[in-house]
Here is the input.
Amino acid sequence: MSGPSTFCVGKTIHAGRSFGCLLLFGVIMQVAKVTEIIASSPNSFDDAVARGVERASKTLNNIAGVWVKEQKATVENGKITEYRVNLKLTFLLED
Here is the structure.
């Protein structure tokens, strides 16, 4: 997360937005959720990741990270025709 954050009991205020927090052993932690998606590209694995994050950001707010769980490629006539990635996206929950 970029920029300064202000912590309070039960909430984190960041860039003027409020996010849910969890108080655990005296430490305030943000609550996040992980969702899994599949994305593809005819160009590269990197492009497939970028396309997946871009598409997910249209419906998911506050995406904080992405993990590439798996990579696959489709081959036709000895040439790669599609790069496919299975992604896990982490996003922060809002109040």
